[in-house]
Amino acid sequence: MKRICIDMDEVMADAVAEHLLRYNRDYQEQITRSDLHGKQIWDVVPTDRHSILEGYLLSEDFFGVLKVMPHAQRVIERLQQRYEVFIATAAMEVPTSFQAKYLWLGRHFPFISPSNIVFCGDKSILHADYLIDDNPRQLRRFQGEGILFSSHHNAGVTGYQRVEDWLDVEKLFLGGASV
Amino acid sequence: MKRICIDMDEVMADAVAEHLLRYNRDYQEQITRSDLHGKQIWDVVPTDRHSILEGYLLSEDFFGVLKVMPHAQRVIERLQQRYEVFIATAAMEVPTSFQAKYLWLGRHFPFISPSNIVFCGDKSILHADYLIDDNPRQLRRFQGEGILFSSHHNAGVTGYQRVEDWLDVEKLFLGGASV
Hints:
2 copies of one chain form a homodimer. By secondary structure, the first copy, chain A, is α/β, with parallel strands linked by helices. Chain A has 2 domains: 3-14 and 67-174, 3-Layer(aba) Sandwich (Rossmann fold); 15-64, no CATH class. Chain A is built from 7 helices and 8 strands. In chain A, the strands form 2 sheets. The first copy, chain A, has a 6-stranded parallel β-sheet. The A-B interface holds A 5, 86, 88, 91-93, 95-96, 98-99, 102, 113-122, 124-128, 143 and B 5, 86, 88, 91-93, 95-96, 98-99, 102, 113-122, 124-128, 143. Chains A, B: GO terms for molecular function: 5'-nucleotidase activity. Chains A, B: InterPro entries: 5'(3')-deoxyribonucleotidase, HAD-like_sf, HAD_sf. Chains A, B: The active site is at 7 (nucleophile), 9 (proton donor). Chains A, B: Pfam families: NT5C.
Protein backbone atom coordinates (compact mmCIF):
# COMPACT_ATOMS: atom_id res chain seq x y z
CA MET A 1 0.00 0.00 0.00
CA LYS A 2 1.52 3.33 -1.03
CA ARG A 3 1.90 6.04 1.57
CA ILE A 4 0.75 9.66 1.32
CA CYS A 5 1.84 12.41 3.72
CA ILE A 6 -0.42 15.44 3.98
CA ASP A 7 0.55 18.86 5.28
CA MET A 8 -1.86 20.75 7.57
CA ASP A 9 -1.69 24.54 7.18
CA GLU A 10 -3.12 25.79 3.86
CA VAL A 11 -3.79 22.18 2.81
CA MET A 12 -6.13 20.75 5.47
CA ALA A 13 -6.59 23.94 7.52
CA ASP A 14 -7.25 27.44 6.22
CA ALA A 15 -4.66 29.34 8.25
CA VAL A 16 -4.38 32.35 5.99
CA ALA A 17 -8.10 33.12 6.29
CA GLU A 18 -7.74 33.38 10.07
CA HIS A 19 -4.56 35.40 9.71
CA LEU A 20 -6.30 37.92 7.43
CA LEU A 21 -9.40 38.00 9.64
CA ARG A 22 -7.37 38.96 12.72
CA TYR A 23 -5.17 41.46 10.91
CA ASN A 24 -8.05 43.18 9.06
CA ARG A 25 -10.04 43.37 12.28
CA ASP A 26 -7.18 44.84 14.34
CA TYR A 27 -6.05 47.35 11.70
CA GLN A 28 -9.34 48.09 9.90
CA GLU A 29 -7.84 46.83 6.66
CA GLN A 30 -9.46 44.89 3.81
CA ILE A 31 -6.66 42.68 2.58
CA THR A 32 -8.13 39.75 0.67
CA ARG A 33 -6.74 36.42 -0.42
CA SER A 34 -6.39 37.74 -3.97
CA ASP A 35 -4.09 40.52 -2.72
CA LEU A 36 -1.73 37.71 -1.68
CA HIS A 37 -1.39 36.21 -5.16
CA GLY A 38 2.22 35.05 -5.49
CA LYS A 39 3.05 36.47 -2.06
CA GLN A 40 3.13 35.68 1.61
CA ILE A 41 1.05 37.72 4.03
CA TRP A 42 4.37 39.06 5.36
CA ASP A 43 5.01 40.67 1.95
CA VAL A 44 1.88 42.85 2.02
CA VAL A 45 1.94 43.90 5.68
CA PRO A 46 4.37 46.67 6.74
CA THR A 47 7.54 45.35 8.38
CA ASP A 48 6.82 47.06 11.69
CA ARG A 49 3.66 44.96 12.02
CA HIS A 50 5.32 41.59 11.42
CA SER A 51 5.59 40.99 15.14
CA ILE A 52 1.78 41.36 15.28
CA LEU A 53 1.42 38.65 12.62
CA GLU A 54 3.76 36.38 14.58
CA GLY A 55 1.75 37.10 17.70
CA TYR A 56 -1.41 35.74 16.03
CA LEU A 57 0.41 32.46 15.28
CA LEU A 58 1.70 32.23 18.84
CA SER A 59 -1.66 32.89 20.46
CA GLU A 60 -3.11 29.75 21.99
CA ASP A 61 -6.44 29.99 20.20
CA PHE A 62 -5.11 30.45 16.63
CA PHE A 63 -4.72 26.91 15.33
CA GLY A 64 -7.74 25.58 17.18
CA VAL A 65 -10.27 27.72 15.30
CA LEU A 66 -9.01 27.19 11.73
CA LYS A 67 -11.60 26.18 9.15
CA VAL A 68 -11.25 22.87 7.36
CA MET A 69 -10.47 23.19 3.64
CA PRO A 70 -13.46 22.22 1.45
CA HIS A 71 -13.82 18.46 0.81
CA ALA A 72 -10.67 17.62 2.84
CA GLN A 73 -12.51 15.38 5.28
CA ARG A 74 -14.37 13.30 2.71
CA VAL A 75 -11.40 12.91 0.38
CA ILE A 76 -8.91 11.98 3.13
CA GLU A 77 -11.32 9.38 4.47
CA ARG A 78 -11.55 7.93 0.94
CA LEU A 79 -7.77 8.04 0.50
CA GLN A 80 -7.39 5.90 3.62
CA GLN A 81 -9.12 3.03 1.84
CA ARG A 82 -6.42 2.84 -0.83
CA TYR A 83 -3.37 4.46 0.76
CA GLU A 84 -1.60 4.66 4.08
CA VAL A 85 -2.22 8.28 5.12
CA PHE A 86 0.02 10.27 7.49
CA ILE A 87 -0.41 13.89 8.51
CA ALA A 88 2.89 15.76 8.59
CA THR A 89 3.02 19.33 9.82
CA ALA A 90 6.02 21.58 10.41
CA ALA A 91 4.84 22.24 13.95
CA MET A 92 8.39 22.80 15.24
CA GLU A 93 8.26 26.27 13.65
CA VAL A 94 5.53 27.22 16.15
CA PRO A 95 6.05 25.05 19.25
CA THR A 96 3.09 26.65 21.03
CA SER A 97 0.84 25.06 18.39
CA PHE A 98 1.42 21.39 19.32
CA GLN A 99 -1.60 20.87 21.54
CA ALA A 100 -3.99 22.96 19.41
CA LYS A 101 -2.99 21.16 16.22
CA TYR A 102 -3.40 17.76 17.84
CA LEU A 103 -6.85 18.63 19.20
CA TRP A 104 -7.90 20.17 15.86
CA LEU A 105 -7.04 16.94 14.04
CA GLY A 106 -8.96 14.86 16.59
CA ARG A 107 -12.00 17.10 16.28
CA HIS A 108 -12.16 17.38 12.49
CA PHE A 109 -10.43 14.15 11.40
CA PRO A 110 -11.29 11.61 14.12
CA PHE A 111 -10.68 8.77 11.63
CA ILE A 112 -6.94 9.53 11.54
CA SER A 113 -5.01 7.55 14.14
CA PRO A 114 -2.66 9.56 16.41
CA SER A 115 0.06 7.07 15.41
CA ASN A 116 -0.16 8.54 11.87
CA ILE A 117 0.43 12.14 12.95
CA VAL A 118 3.90 13.68 12.62
CA PHE A 119 5.05 17.01 14.03
CA CYS A 120 8.36 17.80 12.41
CA GLY A 121 10.53 20.55 11.01
CA ASP A 122 12.46 19.40 7.96
CA LYS A 123 10.21 17.10 5.89
CA SER A 124 13.13 15.26 4.31
CA ILE A 125 12.67 13.00 7.36
CA LEU A 126 9.41 11.58 5.95
CA HIS A 127 9.49 8.08 4.50
CA ALA A 128 6.56 8.15 2.10
CA ASP A 129 5.71 7.89 -1.59
CA TYR A 130 3.92 11.25 -1.83
CA LEU A 131 3.80 14.51 0.07
CA ILE A 132 0.92 16.93 -0.54
CA ASP A 133 2.17 20.32 0.61
CA ASP A 134 1.78 24.00 -0.29
CA ASN A 135 5.41 24.75 0.59
CA PRO A 136 7.90 24.26 -2.28
CA ARG A 137 10.82 24.38 0.17
CA GLN A 138 9.48 21.26 1.91
CA LEU A 139 8.71 19.52 -1.40
CA ARG A 140 12.28 20.12 -2.55
CA ARG A 141 13.67 18.36 0.50
CA PHE A 142 11.16 15.49 0.48
CA GLN A 143 12.59 12.28 -1.00
CA GLY A 144 9.40 10.94 -2.60
CA GLU A 145 7.11 12.60 -5.15
CA GLY A 146 5.99 16.08 -4.16
CA ILE A 147 2.48 17.27 -4.99
CA LEU A 148 2.09 21.06 -4.79
CA PHE A 149 -1.23 22.10 -3.23
CA SER A 150 -2.17 25.46 -4.74
CA SER A 151 -2.08 28.39 -2.38
CA HIS A 152 -1.92 32.17 -2.88
CA HIS A 153 1.82 32.29 -2.12
CA ASN A 154 2.93 29.48 -4.49
CA ALA A 155 1.10 30.84 -7.57
CA GLY A 156 4.26 31.14 -9.69
CA VAL A 157 5.94 27.91 -8.61
CA THR A 158 6.59 25.26 -11.26
CA GLY A 159 8.33 21.90 -11.30
CA TYR A 160 5.76 19.89 -9.33
CA GLN A 161 2.54 18.12 -10.07
CA ARG A 162 0.00 20.72 -8.91
CA VAL A 163 -3.45 20.20 -7.39
CA GLU A 164 -5.86 23.13 -7.09
CA ASP A 165 -7.99 21.75 -4.26
CA TRP A 166 -9.20 18.52 -2.64
CA LEU A 167 -11.37 17.61 -5.62
CA ASP A 168 -8.18 17.66 -7.67
CA VAL A 169 -6.45 15.44 -5.07
CA GLU A 170 -9.38 13.03 -5.32
CA LYS A 171 -9.09 12.91 -9.09
CA LEU A 172 -5.33 12.40 -9.01
CA PHE A 173 -5.21 9.63 -6.41
CA LEU A 174 -8.63 8.03 -6.74
CA GLY A 175 -9.61 8.79 -10.31
CA GLY A 176 -12.58 10.99 -9.49
CA ALA A 177 -15.37 11.65 -7.02
CA SER A 178 -17.22 8.87 -5.23
CA VAL A 179 -20.84 8.37 -6.23
CA MET B 1 26.11 12.18 5.15
CA LYS B 2 24.24 9.30 6.78
CA ARG B 3 21.29 10.06 9.00
CA ILE B 4 20.69 8.78 12.54
CA CYS B 5 17.37 9.06 14.36
CA ILE B 6 17.49 8.93 18.14
CA ASP B 7 14.60 8.08 20.45
CA MET B 8 14.10 10.12 23.64
CA ASP B 9 12.61 8.11 26.53
CA GLU B 10 15.02 5.51 27.99
CA VAL B 11 17.64 6.52 25.38
CA MET B 12 18.27 10.25 25.94
CA ALA B 13 16.03 10.70 28.99
CA ASP B 14 15.78 8.45 32.04
CA ALA B 15 12.00 8.17 32.25
CA VAL B 16 11.86 4.93 34.24
CA ALA B 17 13.92 6.45 37.08
CA GLU B 18 11.32 9.19 37.52
CA HIS B 19 8.49 6.69 37.21
CA LEU B 20 9.97 4.52 39.99
CA LEU B 21 10.76 7.55 42.14
CA ARG B 22 7.16 8.75 42.07
CA TYR B 23 5.65 5.31 42.56
CA ASN B 24 7.98 4.32 45.41
CA ARG B 25 7.38 7.66 47.11
CA ASP B 26 3.58 7.47 46.84
CA TYR B 27 3.29 3.80 47.89
CA GLN B 28 6.29 3.41 50.20
CA GLU B 29 7.70 0.74 47.94
CA GLN B 30 11.32 -0.03 47.03
CA ILE B 31 11.05 -1.25 43.46
CA THR B 32 14.43 -0.88 41.76
CA ARG B 33 15.52 -0.92 38.15
CA SER B 34 16.83 -4.46 38.58
CA ASP B 35 13.33 -5.63 39.58
CA LEU B 36 12.29 -4.59 36.08
CA HIS B 37 14.75 -6.86 34.27
CA GLY B 38 12.95 -8.17 31.17
CA LYS B 39 9.75 -6.39 32.22
CA GLN B 40 7.87 -3.15 31.96
CA ILE B 41 7.01 -1.22 35.13
CA TRP B 42 3.37 -2.13 34.38
CA ASP B 43 4.25 -5.82 34.88
CA VAL B 44 5.44 -5.37 38.49
CA VAL B 45 2.79 -2.93 39.70
CA PRO B 46 -0.67 -4.30 40.62
CA THR B 47 -3.26 -3.74 37.89
CA ASP B 48 -5.43 -1.54 40.09
CA ARG B 49 -2.56 0.94 40.30
CA HIS B 50 -1.94 1.20 36.54
CA SER B 51 -4.05 4.34 36.33
CA ILE B 52 -1.67 5.88 38.90
CA LEU B 53 1.29 5.07 36.63
CA GLU B 54 -0.52 6.62 33.66
CA GLY B 55 -1.27 9.66 35.79
CA TYR B 56 2.46 10.23 36.34
CA LEU B 57 3.03 10.27 32.57
CA LEU B 58 0.13 12.66 32.04
CA SER B 59 1.20 15.11 34.73
CA GLU B 60 2.64 18.29 33.26
CA ASP B 61 5.87 18.16 35.22
CA PHE B 62 6.87 14.56 34.39
CA PHE B 63 8.86 14.87 31.15
CA GLY B 64 10.41 18.21 32.10
CA VAL B 65 12.34 16.84 35.08
CA LEU B 66 13.81 13.71 33.49
CA LYS B 67 17.55 13.18 33.94
CA VAL B 68 19.77 13.03 30.87
CA MET B 69 21.31 9.60 30.23
CA PRO B 70 25.05 9.52 30.98
CA HIS B 71 27.28 10.78 28.12
CA ALA B 72 24.28 11.42 25.82
CA GLN B 73 25.04 15.12 25.39
CA ARG B 74 28.71 14.74 24.56
CA VAL B 75 28.22 11.79 22.21
CA ILE B 76 25.28 13.32 20.32
CA GLU B 77 27.24 16.53 19.82
CA ARG B 78 30.10 14.45 18.41
CA LEU B 79 27.71 12.43 16.20
CA GLN B 80 26.52 15.68 14.61
CA GLN B 81 29.98 16.22 13.14
CA ARG B 82 29.78 13.03 11.09
CA TYR B 83 26.05 12.31 10.77
CA GLU B 84 22.80 14.12 10.26
CA VAL B 85 21.06 13.66 13.63
CA PHE B 86 17.30 13.74 14.16
CA ILE B 87 15.45 13.20 17.43
CA ALA B 88 12.34 11.05 16.98
CA THR B 89 10.02 10.46 19.89
CA ALA B 90 6.65 8.69 19.98
CA ALA B 91 5.09 11.73 21.63
CA MET B 92 1.65 11.02 20.12
CA GLU B 93 1.21 8.32 22.79
CA VAL B 94 1.22 11.06 25.46
CA PRO B 95 -0.05 14.24 23.77
CA THR B 96 0.25 16.23 27.01
CA SER B 97 4.03 15.77 26.75
CA PHE B 98 4.63 17.83 23.59
CA GLN B 99 5.61 21.10 25.19
CA ALA B 100 7.63 19.53 28.04
CA LYS B 101 9.59 17.33 25.64
CA TYR B 102 10.35 20.24 23.36
CA LEU B 103 11.55 22.42 26.24
CA TRP B 104 13.59 19.54 27.72
CA LEU B 105 15.45 19.12 24.41
CA GLY B 106 16.13 22.84 24.19
CA ARG B 107 17.45 22.92 27.74
CA HIS B 108 19.69 19.84 27.61
CA PHE B 109 20.51 19.64 23.89
CA PRO B 110 20.57 23.27 22.69
CA PHE B 111 22.82 22.24 19.78
CA ILE B 112 19.98 20.24 18.16
CA SER B 113 17.96 22.37 15.73
CA PRO B 114 14.16 22.31 16.21
CA SER B 115 13.93 21.41 12.51
CA ASN B 116 15.55 18.07 13.39
CA ILE B 117 12.99 17.13 16.05
CA VAL B 118 10.15 14.75 15.18
CA PHE B 119 7.13 13.96 17.33
CA CYS B 120 5.47 10.93 15.81
CA GLY B 121 3.65 7.71 16.56
CA ASP B 122 4.62 4.95 14.14
CA LYS B 123 8.36 5.24 13.41
CA SER B 124 8.07 3.53 10.03
CA ILE B 125 7.54 7.13 8.84
CA LEU B 126 11.21 7.99 9.47
CA HIS B 127 13.49 8.30 6.47
CA ALA B 128 16.89 7.57 7.99
CA ASP B 129 19.77 5.12 7.86
CA TYR B 130 19.73 4.25 11.58
CA LEU B 131 17.29 4.41 14.47
CA ILE B 132 18.61 4.11 18.02
CA ASP B 133 15.63 3.05 20.13
CA ASP B 134 14.87 0.91 23.19
CA ASN B 135 11.55 -0.24 21.76
CA PRO B 136 11.73 -3.37 19.56
CA ARG B 137 8.24 -2.70 18.20
CA GLN B 138 9.44 0.59 16.70
CA LEU B 139 12.66 -0.98 15.40
CA ARG B 140 10.65 -3.68 13.63
CA ARG B 141 8.64 -1.08 11.74
CA PHE B 142 11.59 1.21 10.94
CA GLN B 143 12.84 0.78 7.36
CA GLY B 144 16.56 1.43 8.00
CA GLU B 145 18.91 -0.35 10.39
CA GLY B 146 17.62 -0.57 13.94
CA ILE B 147 20.02 -0.23 16.87
CA LEU B 148 18.58 -1.53 20.15
CA PHE B 149 19.49 0.67 23.12
CA SER B 150 19.59 -1.59 26.18
CA SER B 151 16.91 -1.01 28.76
CA HIS B 152 15.48 -3.10 31.60
CA HIS B 153 12.41 -4.10 29.57
CA ASN B 154 14.25 -5.27 26.41
CA ALA B 155 16.73 -7.54 28.24
CA GLY B 156 15.68 -10.68 26.37
CA VAL B 157 15.26 -9.17 22.91
CA THR B 158 17.51 -10.43 20.10
CA GLY B 159 17.78 -9.75 16.39
CA TYR B 160 19.22 -6.24 16.53
CA GLN B 161 22.63 -4.70 16.94
CA ARG B 162 22.59 -3.80 20.64
CA VAL B 163 24.26 -0.90 22.44
CA GLU B 164 24.49 -0.89 26.24
CA ASP B 165 24.88 2.85 26.73
CA TRP B 166 26.12 6.04 25.05
CA LEU B 167 29.76 4.97 25.26
CA ASP B 168 28.75 1.98 23.18
CA VAL B 169 26.99 4.25 20.68
CA GLU B 170 30.15 6.33 20.45
CA LYS B 171 32.23 3.24 19.76
CA LEU B 172 29.82 1.93 17.14
CA PHE B 173 29.39 5.15 15.16
CA LEU B 174 32.61 7.03 15.87
CA GLY B 175 35.06 4.26 16.63
CA GLY B 176 35.68 5.22 20.24
CA ALA B 177 35.86 8.09 22.69
CA SER B 178 37.23 11.48 21.73
CA VAL B 179 40.57 12.40 23.27
